[in-house]
Amino acid sequence: MNLVIHDLKPAQWKLIEQDYEGWTVISDNGLIRPCVGCFHCWNKTPGVCVIKDGFENMGQLIHRAGEVVVISRYTYGGFSGFVKNVIDRCLGYVLPQFEIVGCETHHKKRYSETKAFTFIFYGQASTKEEQDIAKRYVRALCSNFRGYVKAVIFREDMQARLPPDTRPACSSGRTVLLVGSMRGLNGNSGKLAGKLAESLTNEPEIVTIQRYIKDLNNLLGLLEDAETLVLCMPLYVDGVPSQMVRLMEHFEQVYNGGSKKVYLLANMGLYESCQLQSLFSAVKQWCVKMGFAYCGGLGISAGELLGELMVHLPFRFGATKKAAEEMDKLVKAINEGSEIADIFAEPYAFPRALYIAVANMSWNRTAKANGLSPSDLYRRL
Ligand SMILES: Cc1cc2nc3c(=O)[nH]c(=O)nc-3n(C[C@H](O)[C@H](O)[C@H](O)COP(=O)(O)O)c2cc1C
Questions:
Q1: What's the pLDDT score for residue 303?
Q2: Spatial separation of the C-alpha atoms in residues 204 and 212, rounded to whole Å
Q3: Pocket of ligand 1 (CB under 6 A)
Q4: Nearest residue CA, atom 19 of ligand 1?
Q5: pLDDT tens sequence across 275-319
Q6: Domains parsed from the chain with CATH numbers
Q7: How many CB atoms are located within 10 Å of the residue 348 CB?
Q8: Could you tell me if 83 and 30 are in contact, meaning their C-beta atoms sit under 8 angstroms apart?
């Protein structure tokens, strides 16, 4: 069995479907739901997602496929909202436990194979820079899925490339912090957004995408006249979580308002904050497309550790010290409306080997809490 995941419209798919005869085809039937970040595909029903919408077995499908082809509209250096949604739901393909591969932390393999992935991007990826960004992104994704990139193909369609409109700047004075995780305010992005808001002078509003997931128009209405938008989101499979890609796509399609200042506050689970690069690139590409001013961001690694510590200890204490100090710089930039260079922070005085040991032990604890033995986490399907 081979597997193709695509976002093509039926008429476009018809033109190439003969190339995929006998393949398992994953396409947009309108039913897929975003990953809610519960990690149950790791610690409750290992290898299978708990959201029963027909996309719960993606990890198993990848495992059974001889090869995997992903066809996506080029979207901010990565996948369209639908394809990214499928990819986010593939998390159970790998194990929760970390190990060092090369010189970076990645997840251990659930299955022994090293899967071949081919990526076909269509749409506006015509410059070398755009293509390089997508190549870097799929390489990172394959490293995390412990497979390899067999080929990356760009098929440009002939849409004229329009320069972004010059928009008048929004002048409402409103600063909105948008939490882009489906865990809402209880997640790590939400907690970090809360800490950021405490130090902002301009009475920021915090809005969660979780609340508006079924009504992106309503959310867009809330963000429309914001002068400053701070995107607070986690890294999902090396990129922007699908629900945020969908919002960004929606903005592109319908937004008619003024220009905004956009800042980014990103966090991730693994240790090396440089793995946030593709997410930062995506937000920057989106800003260019929207005619918004990207003003800089802060990327924080070991988000689960920091999120946990923030509940029990003052932010700035112990391992959160570095993140708190770097957040001061972001706060200053937002308060002044100025630009800063992107900052990447790792836990303070918490070496990588210790982080990996603590994280790996914590999965055994959550397995037990869910009535599983640690060995159940390694289940193969
Ligand atoms: C579907 C999914 C994919 C993830 N992919 C990555 C990843 O590629 N790299 C990484 O470092 N962390 C990854 N994480 C971990 C999250 O970035 C991390 O747990 C983060 O702190 C979650 O923030 P939140 O609580 O705001 O959702 C992933 C988590 C989920 C649920």
A1: 96
A2: 18
A3: 35, 37, 88, 91, 144, 181, 183, 187-189, 234-238, 267-270, 275, 303-304, 307
A4: 269
A5: 999 999 999 999 999 999 999 999 999 999 999 999 999 999 999
A6: 3-96+114-155 (3.40.50.360), 175-345 (3.40.50.360)
A7: 16
A8: no
